[in-house]
Amino acid sequence: MHIIPLTPINKQALESIGLSWHTDRDTTDYIAPEMVEITQEEAERFYNAGNELYEMFCEAGQYVIDNNLFFDLDIPVSLIPMIKQSWEQEVHWHLYGRFDFAGGLDGLPLKLLEFNADTPTMLYESAVIQWAMLKANGLDENEQFNNIYEALQENFKRIITLGADTSRFSEIYEGWKILFSCVSGNDEEERTTRFLQEIARSAGFETEFAYIDEVRFSQDQGVFFNECNYEFLFKLLPWESIAIDEPELAMLMRSIMESKAGIFLNPAYTLLFQSKRMLKILWDLFPNHPLLLESSFEPLQGKAQVSKASFGREGQGIEIFDESSQIIAQNTSEYQNCKRVYQAYHELNKNGEFYYQPNVFFAYESCGLGFRKGGLILDNYAKFVSHSIR
Questions:
Q1: CA angle 317, 248, 205 (to 5 degrees)
Q2: ∠ CA(320), CA(301), CA(355), 5° rounding?
Q3: How many CA atoms lie within 13 A of 147 on its CB side?
Q4: 3-state helix, strand, coil in the chain (%, to 5)
């Protein structure tokens, strides 16, 4: 790996461009003062991998619905009708997601680890901060795989045009409004949500922001904030959390969808992609595909492997086993009640003592690359690392 040291952007400057979560709880800097150099060929490989995998996920999603495999994916029962409706009706448009990979550099095979399709974070860092890091160091900020802002802008327009061609957006758009919402008290989630709001506004939408507890839900009239009705609600709140922690809200949202009084972003069907147990469905449908790792609902025999919770986040619930089934690394979990999936272990990109995980954002097509740096299990202390194409 080619790691180039960079001069860090000071914390005051980071805050001035919207990044307030620059210091982790252990007082270390979240934005690593370095960048990964990649080749144009490697960048194209990341781009093509995201595009191919999304088509595979769509095929797998149809297979799950056709064969009623929601239980296998650990999907809450209350969400199944919303998943089916959003899948069948094109107006429920998938705005964006993030693929997490292993390998892809220095000749290591590129392999999918998982798809964060519902509420992916690291968006603002990938779209804005790494551009600023290169610029602050006197480098060409355009020499990176990063057109996240433009891709999202176009994909917002597709919410209305429902297709690749967005040229008729202004002609079709009739003032439909998007309310952007997240929980209060989380700077990263609020910045991510407001960033998406900014992009939607730049695309031509009328928008507003509210914390989720300020939003009023009416089962036959839709979503309201300050007595104004919104046709769309973007919620940076995971679907499975809504189903488990807010069952009454889940039922209200279901009624809103059934009465066609509102549309939610990302749509409910993204939970199919979000479930890590989808990895086993992909392996069944595309066995030995070069972008996939063998995955099973049962432990793999005689292989190094990773055990994951169906909806674990930030490395929680991860267990790594060697070939003799001995645990070599694990992370405590809030997800003990989730079903597990077992995925063959694949070597991560490594430099010195640290591992580097490439992450590709997807908004109708692959649109940006960022890296996370940390230990063998990347948790919420992992650092963000910029990249540049040499």
A1: 85
A2: 25
A3: 12
A4: 35, 25, 40
pLDDT band at 333 (very low <50, low <70, confident <90, very high): low
Q: Which residue has the tokens 């009465």?
A: 259
Average pLDDT over the chain reads: 95
Q: How many helices (H) and strands (E) does the chain have?
A: 12, 20
What are phi and psi for residue 217, nearest 5 degrees? -110, 130
Q: Which residues contact 8 (CB under 8 A, 6 or more apart)?
A: 29, 31, 33
CA-CA distances (angstroms) from residue 118 to 33, 52, 268?
29, 19, 8
Kindly report, residue by residue over 67-121, the tens digit of the pLDDT. 999 999 999 999 999 999 999 999 999 999 999 999 999 989 999 999 999 999 8
In this structure, what DSSP letter does residue 105 have? Answer: S
Backbone phi, psi, residue 11, to 5°: -65, -35
In Å, the largest CA–CA distance within the chain is: 62
Instruction: Spell out the long-range contacts of 377-381 with Cβ–Cβ below 8 A and sequence spacing 24 or more.
Output: 377/315, 377/318, 377/320, 377/329, 377/330, 377/331, 378/315, 379/314, 379/315, 379/316, 379/331, 380/24, 380/314, 380/315, 381/24, 381/25, 381/26, 381/28
pLDDT at 62 (0 to 100)? 98
- Strand pairing class (216-218; 222-225): antiparallel
- The amino acid present at 180, given as its one-letter code, is F
Q: Strands of 228-230's sheet, edge to edge?
A: 216-218, 222-225, 228-230
- 142 pLDDT exceeds 80? yes
Beta bridge partners of 264: 233
Distances (CA, A) of 227 to 183, 234, 287: 20, 18, 52
- Specify which residues 112 forms β-bridges with: 101
Look up residue 353 and give its two tokens. Answer: 């003592």
Strand, helix or coil for residue 25:
coil
